[in-house]
Specification:
- By secondary structure, the chain is α/β, with parallel strands linked by helices.
- It has one domain: TIM Barrel.
- Helices cover 47% and strands 16% of the residues.
- The chain is built from 13 helices and nine strands.
- Helix 2 runs parallel beside helix 3.
Amino acid sequence: MQLKLSILDQSPVSAGMTEQEALEKSIRLAKHGEKLGYERYWIAEHHDLFGLACPNPGVMLGAIGAHTNSIRIGAGAVLLPYYKPYHVAETYNLLATLYPGRIDLGLGRAPGGSAEVSLALADNYLEEVRKFPEKVTELQGFLDGSFATDNMFHKISPTPVPEESPQLWMLGTSARSAKLAAEKGLSYAFGHFMTDKDGPEIVRKYRTEMHEQHPEKEPYVIVAVSVICAKTTEKAHDLALSQCVWKLRQDTLEEDVRIPSVDEAKQYAFTDEERDKMAAMKEQMIIGNPEEVRTSLRELDRLYEADEYMIVTIIHDEHDTLKSYELMTP
């Protein structure tokens, strides 16, 4: 069985690259994914965070939509605690009007940056996190017009109103997010690459609770996984070394940390503790030649039985990034 594959882009900034070049690279990746037949392209939201260039998926999707024609595009995710639901609805309705039938709106509650960033973006971030379920309901009301007539917002619309609303998704890495997705009747994207939780069990519970609470809806699951594919196993592991060193340096340096080249990564002086951390990182990743990658994805699918797999690939060199996405397709 051929797996459905999609792209999750964090818009990473490589050493020697400007932020502008990183964002332009993201546009090229979306175009490449469309050409290769990927189902959808999502871009993440991060704030002042170690070499990731996109703080505003809505702005980037405006540019990406203009350079693509058919691939679904979306946010993975909008960090809702920072925003009023009406503002989010307006933004994604506008995108859905410009690019009909193509817009996904993923929702998350993570901070996406430091504690100082959260203070700069929200007056009381923790309180907004607590209100996250209520904000999701309010956003649903704005997008589908489901407010009761006694609700103060039932007479207003987040214009422009598209013929087809953005598709809402709940993103998460825990049972709490899966439970909320089922409660709200939303499709669910699980970040396998970001957690050590029992993902397959979390996904099973989502499906069960979705059937119980919304029998009229079919649950839909995306599992996001970190993958690096190259023509040879050796090269794939060399490419993965850059990502591992990048993540290790995030723990030790305060200044801007960018994706090192393979040559630079090979010169990194690992401590024994860092070697253990790197081994743990690689256990969460799929790394190898095309056949090894496809085999590992099929093995993962036997655990999750997901409807779709979203691939995040962080490599220093753009050519190797595009080639990785190309090699893992049939």
